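Intended use. Records such as the SCO family protein entry shown here are meant for training and evaluating sequence-to-structure methods. They are not intended to support clinical decisions.
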Amino acid sequence: MADSPIDGRFDLVDHHGQHVTEQTYRGRWMLVYFGFTNCRSVCPRTLTKLTDSLERLGELSDRIAPLYITVDPERDTPEVMRIFLENRFPRFTGLTGSDERVTAAKAAYRVFSQRGQDPADPDGYAVPHSAITYLVDPDGHYVDHFVDTADAEAIADRVRARLESAQ
């Protein structure tokens, strides 16, 4: 990934408690989104849109590992992520870890997030973050990204084009 501004490395724990790195997913495309389970608007909307995109891809989606990496490791334990994803977004694998490891993953993807006070949150804080989804090829190279305003059909069309051109 030397030519890309996106490094794509991570060393985290999945929502089943298994240690994973970017190498775990070699041979599969990765659709990577950073967020947190207590997010009330952007994350659920994006995960719903990405789920719709994956459904639009049909069998092609079997070649993709959809990953949801937390920006709030203090609250998002593997168990919290497992319950959240299995109940709402079962296609996704949640990744978390220590603050240091999550910070390293965010840096590798150039993701911004910063904990801030939020009186509406039961814990008194939220974690505003960048809302970009990354597409990484089976060799671990960043190939595309999707901003928050991209719709499910546009994402599916671009992902389909990438997957079909790589066959």
